[in-house]
Design a protein that fits this description.
Length: about 110
């Protein structure tokens, strides 16, 4: 007796852009310089999204305080586990953009 295939989308979470993962969103908005360098390296290596090992190498070589925070390492662990298939995509809104602009201004002007 042959089993019937289930109709519909396969199980699992939908593939998202790297910017919509927790780690991508965090890097893009809190450390834009390192994010741009990371994306340039990933593009040079012809990767769709940077690997977790590449992100970790950037984190150890950077002097930015974000890379020593617990929220960065939690996001990196989630990225290792799920890749570009997180449960929820993170998207920006006007209030989030204003918050991160304010955060970057304080970060770079108060050095």
């Amino acid at each position: 007796m042959a089993t019937r295939r289930k109709v519909g989308r396969p199980k699992g979470y939908k593939l998202k852009k790297f910017d919509e993962t927790r780690i991508g969103f965090l890097l893009k908005h809190e450390t834009p310089i390192e994010y741009r360098m990371l994306m340039d390296v990933a593009e040079f290596m012809k990767l769709r999204a940077p690997s977790a090992n590449l992100i970790e190498a950037f984190a150890y070589s950077s002097s930015d305080p974000l890379f020593r925070k617990e929220k960065f390492w939690r996001a990196l662990i989630e990225y290792r586990k799920c890749g570009c298939r997180p449960k929820m995509a993170l998207k920006t809104s006007v209030s989030k953009e204003l918050y991160y602009i304010h955060l970057r201004l304080n970060k770079y002007l108060n050095k």
